[in-house]
Design goal:
55% helix, 36 helices
């Protein structure tokens, strides 16, 4: 059979194997993080967060149509789009590896391949492609609706295409492959920018093939040209095109009086004219290289033109319309992620730097009614402590503390350039890249977040080879996400890399460039400031792809060794078989259990529970990604509770979002925000500072709101710049309660009327008011209890603006209810509206296959499982307090029925001990014992591991955990032996354990006492 036919068939076989794998392990509904937003935006062609993903959205829409009207199936089919794209990526990886392998084994491109070499080439392709199929990071993105699957496909296509061009470069018309690559690069911008990082490697391929006298100097020059092309596409085509168009638009609109987009459209016509003239000139005067350059730019623009989707859909005002990019200036800010700020790259401040001066930068423009308006100037700051190549620059939140903790710096020590470099190598490069690389090719302890420690178990890599002697906790080694790979894929890949450089230095250099630019170059460019909201391994999947090429070529390297003792054909078969077992088969067997999401429904059902917790027509304030994006999906796609208005407070800082909230959405009426747009538009009341005027007693929120939104100079202060601005004169707020309004709007039941307060008084908790707080005060001042006001229980306390005394749990939400404050309750956020909450949790909630799912991801176990435990516990305690012990016991049994018996950490253990105490108090000894035994198994497991660490003099020994675990054991002894419990056998077991551990940890416990 011909080489080409076998190559094609095996490539499609890889596609089939990978696609079937991913479809079998697909998440059946929405996933956590951005997936809910992406599915919603694809299904209804809406505008996602910056910098926009138009090609991804349109392709997602196509796959969503396969649901044929069953909206609950929409995410399954958009997830399948990722699965098929990932399968295609594996197919192109196979063809890439076989192309490179053939170049290694054949002296000439058109040389016939004998059977032995054919076996070896195809074996290399199969091993490398199928190994990458089952790697941790790539598989994770392959089974959910996320941009990284399609982005990987674009990377695979362009790298395969440049090898196709390389193989046919001497044939007429071969440069069509270069133009094809340009088009894919342009299209990929509408998916994700990672694909642009292939450009330097492509430039080097072109250089090696076209340049007659290859030497170090000209190779460096070619590399720099490739880097310049990357910069040109990233900043010139993608960035400055829209920026220049915006300033054309400014002139046409403000100076010529024409409509919005007229100047931008004129500028686009100029680009078309320039490209047309350049192509015509190059043809007429026979300039093939110039012709290729103009055609490539034109085709990049063809692909990039997908971004016309953004202003078109932005102008249509869909429900999800991030930034509302309906004009050229907003579109420019949207594409360049202006709202996320900029990280310094080559020069900037240290984290302890003080601002010593500031200068005005460029003018910020916003869209007015008929013209662009001046919204102020961008401020540029001058710092007193700066450096070249700044890595430790952020002074936000906990970043400075983490820098000092990581580098073991003193509280007053000033960072040096040495600290800067140490931080870059130890955290940015090792912890946030090398660790991810080792996850994929060496192995991993678990899927916990491991950003904060390079030596602990959680989130760290392991080969598994030496784990038997480490006395690891059973919770780790028996966990679903413990995946030791014995470093075999790494060894094969390194073997293949070394052999590649020995046999084909140029090709190996090209793969190395791909590996570098899609890995370490991203680390250096992104310059992550500190702890990230989640692990970022998905950003570097391109470099893992490149390493998989070397895993494939490792087959050839191994065959060379085996050939020393046998025939070439046997060596090829043996090397392929050994490497298939050591890489793809091993990876699949280890990784399957922690990538099989086919039974997981947690994101969908947790979002459902948020919505179901809300009274009719509620306003639900959220903040983070995982308590917002899944909510958007449930509401926008499946139409669950369309009467609830979801308000994301992190977006509420934008004037565009506040304006959207003033309109109808789904079945939700406009929010009671009374401010006209001119009072909160960009540059107006961006921040209002507190200036204590010593006003006695609390002030009505409406009066405060009217004062801080007044344009009367008597209510404002003048700054040194000469500008005037409002100020907050008091933090003591109140709302006078009209009981009739509260009853009429069903905020409470008639039998709760005696609990009502006459006024709701609280202290505002910040020293300034930003736009989201301003809009919240507007709602509080003018809602008059018409619409229920709720907050997700996962929201940060700083976002509650001091309302905690009046917030009551009704499930997954806090409901604002003007009851008299309960000063006896220590945990103000533990208060419940018990009977309403009981009905929600017992009769309405869904529990996401929590107990039966084969795999629960990190967010399910560490974010939502503790929330579920706390929610059940608060309800049980609230019911007991309100005189319903029978219902409280039913709640405990409901928890036992629907929730898995897992212990993600000691905080959950603490709450489960309260569960046991509650069960004993309610005279359910069997259930109490069940909770105690569950906790005991985990606690003793942790103590055993810490005893090993203590004996080993490990720096990871945690005396705090030992103290907690010992106190837990003591507490459980008290429970099992107290009152009517008399659990003699269990008590004796616990006493024996604590005596044993007191002896083991006597030195530690005695010293701490």
């Amino acid at each position: 059979m011909q080489y080409k036919k076998i190559n094609n068939l095996l490539g499609w076989l890889c596609f089939a194997i990978a696609s079937v794998t991913y479809i079998l392990t697909l998440e059946p509904s929405v996933s956590f993080w951005d997936c809910g937003e992406f599915i919603s935006c694809a299904y209804r062609l809406q505008v996602a967060h910056q910098p926009g993903y138009p090609v991804f959205a349109m392709l997602g829409k196509m796959f969503s149509l396969l649901s044929f009207g069953n909206n609950a199936k929409v995410p399954y089919f958009t997830n399948m789009g990722s699965a098929l794209a990932s399968g295609a990526t594996i197919m192109f990886l196979f063809w890439t590896i076989t192309a490179l392998a053939k170049k290694m084994l054949a002296d000439k491109a058109d040389e016939a391949v004998d059977q032995s070499r054919l076996l070896l080439i195809m074996g290399a392709g199969l091993v490398g492609a199928l190994a990458f199929t089952y790697t941790d990071t790539f598989w994770f993105s392959a089974v959910e609706t996320i941009v990284f699957a399609l982005s990987s496909l674009c990377t695979a296509i362009v790298f395969w295409a440049i090898l196709k061009w390389d193989a046919h470069a001497d044939e007429p018309g071969a440069d069509r492959w270069i133009i094809f690559i340009a088009y894919i690069v342009g299209l990929s911008i509408g998916i994700h920018l990672l694909n642009l990082l292939t450009i330097p490697a492509i430039a080097i391929v072109y250089y090696f093939r076209r340049h007659k006298n290859v030497n170090v100097g000209s190779a460096i020059g070619a590399f720099l040209i490739g880097a310049l092309i990357l910069v040109f596409v990233q900043y010139g085509i993608r960035g400055y095109t829209i920026q220049i168009a915006a300033y054309f638009d400014l002139f046409f609109v403000n100076s010529l009086g024409l409509g919005f987009w007229s100047g931008a459209f004129f500028f686009f016509l100029i680009i078309v004219a320039i490209l047309f003239a350049g192509i015509w000139f190059s043809i007429k005067y026979n300039k093939p290289l110039l012709n290729l350059a103009f055609l490539c730019v034109a085709f990049v623009y063809f692909g990039y033109s997908s971004f016309a989707y953004i202003p078109i859909r932005g102008t249509a005002n869909p429900d999800l319309n991030n930034s509302h990019p309906d004009n050229a200036f907003t579109l420019y800010g949207y594409l360049n992620r202006v709202q996320y700020g900029e990280n310094p790259l080559l020069f900037g401040q240290y984290f302890d730097a003080k601002v010593v001066d500031q200068t005005e930068g460029s003018t910020i423009y916003r869209k007015g009614k008929t013209t662009y308006e001046n919204a102020g100037k961008k401020q540029n700051y001058v710092y007193d402590h700066t450096t070249i190549f700044p890595r430790m620059y952020s002074n936000e939140g906990q970043d400075p503390q983490f820098y000092r903790q990581w580098l073991q710096m003193g509280d007053q020590a000033a960072p040096t350039f040495g600290d800067n470099m140490k931080w870059m190598f130890s955290w940015q490069i090792y912890q946030m890249y090398v660790r991810y690389f080792l996850w994929n090719f060496v192995g991993r302890y678990n899927d916990q977040d491991g950003q904060q420690s390079s030596t602990g178990i959680d989130g760290n890599w392991t080969s598994g080879i030496f784990d038997g002697g480490k006395h690891l906790p059973k919770s780790v080694v028996n966990g679903t996400t413990y995946t030791p790979l014995y470093a075999l894929p790494l060894i094969i890949g390194l073997f293949g890399c070394v052999y590649h450089f020995q046999r084909k230095k140029r090709d190996a250099l090209i793969v190395l460039l791909l590996f570098f630019f899609t890995g370490l170059a991203i680390v250096l460019y992104v310059n992550q400031p500190s702890i990230q909201p989640r692990e970022r391994d998905y950003s570097y999947v391109g470099s893992f792809y490149a390493f998989a090429i070397w895993i494939g070529l490792g087959v050839i390297a191994l065959a060379e060794l085996i050939k020393l003792i046998t025939t070439q054909k046997v060596a090829a078969i043996a090397a392929t078989a050994i490497c298939l077992l050591a890489a793809p088969v091993l990876l699949a067997s280890k990784e399957w259990k922690d990538h099989d999401r086919s039974t997981k429904m947690t994101p969908h059902d947790m979002a459902y529970n948020y919505l179901i917790s809300c009274p009719p027509n509620a306003i639900l304030f959220t903040y983070g990604d995982n308590d917002t994006y899944s909510l958007w999906y449930d509401q926008e796609v499946e139409g669950i509770r369309p009467d609830v208005r979801i308000v994301n407070l992190s977006l509420f800082t934008g004037d565009w979002y506040i304006q959207q909230m003033q309109g109808k959405m789904n079945q939700s009426a406009p929010l009671p925000i009374t401010m006209p747009y001119d009072k909160y538009k960009e540059g107006v009341r961006d921040v209002i500072y507190f200036d204590d005027k010593k006003i006695p007693g609390p002030v009505e929120v409406k009066e405060v709101f009217d004062f801080i939104t007044s344009d009367n100079r008597a209510t404002q202060v003048q700054y040194q710049t000469g500008d005037w601005g409002n100020y907050l004169p008091t933090k003591d707020f109140k709302i006078t309660i009209n009981p009739d309004d509260v009853l009429k709007n069903h905020v409470i039941t008639p039998d709760q009327k005696d609990k009502l307060a006459t006024t709701m008084e609280w202290k505002y908790t910040s020293n300034y008011i930003t736009k989201e707080n301003l809009a919240m005060l507007d709602i509080l001042a003018h809602n008059n209890w018409v619409r229920p006001i709720c907050f997700t229980t996962t929201i940060g306390q700083e976002n509650l603006i001091g309302l905690q005394p009046y917030l009551y749990k009704e499930g997954f939400t806090y409901h604002l209810i003007p009851f008299k404050p309960d000063t006896t309750t220590k945990d103000q956020l533990g208060k419940v509206n018990s009977l309403v909450m009981y009905n929600n949790m017992m009769n309405k909630f869904k529990y996401g296959n929590f107990k039966t799912a084969r795999y629960l991801d990190h967010e399910s176990t560490t974010m939502f499982y503790p929330v579920m435990v706390t929610t059940f516990l608060d309800l049980a305690q609230g019911l007991i307090k309100d005189g319903h012990p029978d219902l409280a016991l039913k709640v405990l049994h409901k928890y036992d029925e629907v929730m898995p018996d897992i212990n993600p950490g000691l905080e959950v253990v603490d709450r489960k001990i309260f569960f046991a105490q509650t069960a004993y108090d309610l005279h359910d000894i069997v259930l109490g014992n069940k909770f105690i035994n569950s906790v005991d198994d985990y606690v003793t497991d942790q103590l055993d591991y810490n005893y090993y660490l203590m004996k080993d003099n490990s720096g990871e020994f945690n005396s705090r955990d030992v103290q907690y675990c010992m106190s837990f054991l003591n507490g459980m002894i008290g429970m099992t032996s107290a009152g009517d419990n008399h659990q003699t056998a269990l008590t004796n077991k616990l006493k024996a354990q604590i005596k044993d551990y007191e002896n083991k940890f006597s030195a530690i416990l005695g010293r701490q006492q």
